[in-house]
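In response to a reviewer's request, we include the raw inputs and outputs for one of the modeled complexes. The three entities were modeled together in a single run.
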Amino acid sequence: MPELPEVETTKRGLEPWLLNQRIEKITVRQAKLRWPVPEEIFQLESQRIFKLERRAKYLLMHTEAGTAIWHLGMSGSLRVVEPNAVIGKHDHIDWQLSNEKVLRYHDPRKFGALLFNPPHSDVALLAQLGPEPLSDAFTGAYLFARARGKTQAVKTFIMDAHQVVGVGNIYANESLFKAGIHPELAAGKISLKRYEILAQEIKTILAQAIEQGGTTLRDFVGGDGKPGYFAQELRVYGRKGLPCPKCQKTLQEVRIAQRSSVFCTKCQH
DNA sequence: ATGCTAACCTGCGCGC
DNA sequence: TGCGCGCAGGTTAGCA
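The model returned the following structure tokens for the whole complex.
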């Protein structure tokens, strides 16, 4: 589920239900996620959540006794449910909150994570990350500078969180199409001018997706609704064999770093 | 250092 | 209807 817009939407959807609530009790039914859920996580019990934060695709919940760091992996989701809600097979973690609601983590593939970080200390995991794509630090000039000497495919390059965070497979495909750049081009061989276009497309697409995510916020509470995909029109992702929306030529698919990459051989070079 | 591969795990859709 | 295969929105460890 999570590309950056969905994590941001999750944060905004949860905020009204979690902010200033006390964590009464933490239940871990399945501790074997991407990393084992650390015992220290229980130090958050009886603590009040005073701030929610998103960094890259990580969701941070701050208390005076430490910070919970969530990652949703490929298939994770966080929702607020009633205490009597039926517990499903992949509902791995519950936080009983002081407002009589339950924060529930669901993750069939178990690629997600819940980590603990002590107060007033930096999170090692986050220290190596590149800038947020919607920040002023992320520009075409930045990408161009970082790409010097790189022979790897530009698609792999922009999906590398050490360069810029939050560009997942869907939006990598979409932004390269919009920028007219072939996904297999060597990152180091692309001009500053083209990187400026690419950076702008990444910003536009992500901002638009976040904006549209707002319309699905109610799905985060109760029911069995999932955030799901945004209404945003996908031009190439998942459209292998269909006509290019610009020139009608059949869209091609290749695998780059084991990820599906769909593009138009006429519009992207 | 750079860049690629395998690996973590379950569910789903497809072809036979 | 059932079975086997390939694929899925992420990220890191480990190796050449």
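As requested, we also summarize the result in words. Residues 214-219, 222-228 of chain A have pLDDT under 50 and may be disordered. Residues 144 and 192 of chain A are 6 Å apart (CA to CA).
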